[in-house]
Design a protein that fits this description.
By secondary structure, the chain is mostly beta strands. It is about 0% helix and about 55% strand. Strands 2, 4, 5, 6, 9, 10 and 11 form a 7-stranded mixed β-sheet that branches. It has a 4-stranded antiparallel β-sheet with strand order 1-3-8-7, with no helix packed on it. The protein is globular and about 45 Å long. The protein starts with a strand and ends with a strand.
Length: about 120
């Protein structure tokens, strides 16, 4: 089992910054990738940024150049630095950890609210 706890959400004005943290615990040696997803009211959950064990990252087009995902392996923590925030970034942000073997399985945090005011 893997447990994920997010922190760092809040209310910020457009153009501001926030850093989300996701502290992971449990059987992390089985985890192949971690990432951040978000879900706005009335919309489907979408991938924001991901990082795999080898360190490669990927981003949604809407956040490229503004958001940066990183990790601290010693602390089992993944971060999402969000700069130049826009009102459309408002959503609940969820931390995700994914296991690929023996079959794909997702672990989720409880979510943290990010609200960007215009």
């Amino acid at each position: 089992q893997v447990q994920l706890v997010e922190s760092g959400g809040g209310l910020v004005q457009a153009g501001g910054s926030l850093r989300l943290s996701c502290a992971a615990s449990g059987n992390m040696f089985r985890i192949n990738a971690m990432g951040w997803y978000r879900q706005a009211p009335g919309k489907q959950r979408e991938l924001v940024a991901g990082i795999i064990s080898g360190g490669s990252t990927n981003y949604a087009d809407s956040v490229k150049g503004r958001f940066t995902i990183s990790r601290d392996n010693a602390k089992n923590t993944v971060y999402l630095q969000m700069n130049s925030l826009k009102p459309e970034d408002t959503a609940v942000y969820y931390c995700n950890a994914q296991r690929w073997v023996p079959r794909e399985y997702d672990y989720w945090g409880q979510g943290t609210q990010v609200t960007v005011s215009s």
